[in-house]
Design a protein that fits this description.
Elements: H1 2-25, H2 29-33, H3 40-45, H4 54-62, H5 66-72, H6 74-95, H7 109-129
Amino acid sequence: MEGSQTSQRHLGLLWGAVAASLLLLATRADEFAQTLRGCSFKSFLGLPCPTCGVTRAALELSNLDVASALRINPLATVLMMVLVLGGLVAGVSTFAGHPPREPRWDLRPVERLGLLLVIVANWAYLVANGT
């Protein structure tokens, strides 16, 4: 049991540190974005890749424009917000003595199908909107 609690504590502290680092790096996001190139998948095939717009969505989030980020890539925006907000909660709750539980990775077939459908629906949105 002690190993599990230590592992959960490490998870909470790591997740919290990542979230805090992302918030600090967000202040430099515009400078970093200028060094990036466009999507190779989109330039080669003419269609957005399943992750197209993630960088632009992250830039909009760094400027606190959630609505624009959601228009660019809804799934990535939600996941980034969960990463940062969840990490901050996990870090604080770990310091308060309540670390997060480790995630389970053994998804049932219906959960896998649901996850796949969410990813495909997001990609369809990107293709429809020419992201």
